[in-house]
Amino acid sequence: MAKKYTRKGHKTRSAGRFGVRYGRKNRKLVADIEERMRQGYKCPRCGIIAIRRTDTGIWNCKKCDYTFAGGTYVPKTSVGLVAARSVKKATEPDMVFEELKDITPGTIEAEEIGEEVETEVDAVSEVAIDVQAEVEMDE
Q1: Which of 17, 35, 53, 104 counts the highest number of beta carbons within 10 A?
Q2: Going edge to edge, which strands form the sheet with 49-55?
Q3: From residue 113, how far is each of 28, 102, 108, 117 by CA, in Å?
Q4: Average model confidence (pLDDT) for the chain?
Q5: Which of 48, 74, 41 is nearest to 63 (CA)?
Q6: Is it the case that residue 22 has pLDDT exceeding 90?
Q7: Residue 69: DSSP 8-state
């Protein structure tokens, strides 16, 4: 037995205004996009769910009146998130610079005097030399 819809427009949702035109698939896609566009989104500045679309790609917070550019139908697109992640990763300091921060002026003076100071970099290089010697012995 077929389902009976009691509410008018339940099946067609916001695309019901098109009537029988344009095909079922296109009307369904339009309805899905419009639902995502009109749902509430969290403001990046104040954190309240009050973001609304004002124009194509322009989003505005009702509470703090923060306006920003985003996607056409959603405030943050998947491509935009990937780009933001890439920029964040590129601006983080590299591991090499963090290792250099471990070297204090005292260790540099000790090396100049001739005292032996072992750092993590020296220990790693010694392990690499030992592994290389083992590989040569196996051959």
Answers
A1: 53
A2: 41-42, 49-55, 58-61, 67-69
A3: 77, 19, 9, 11
A4: 77
A5: 48
A6: yes
A7: E
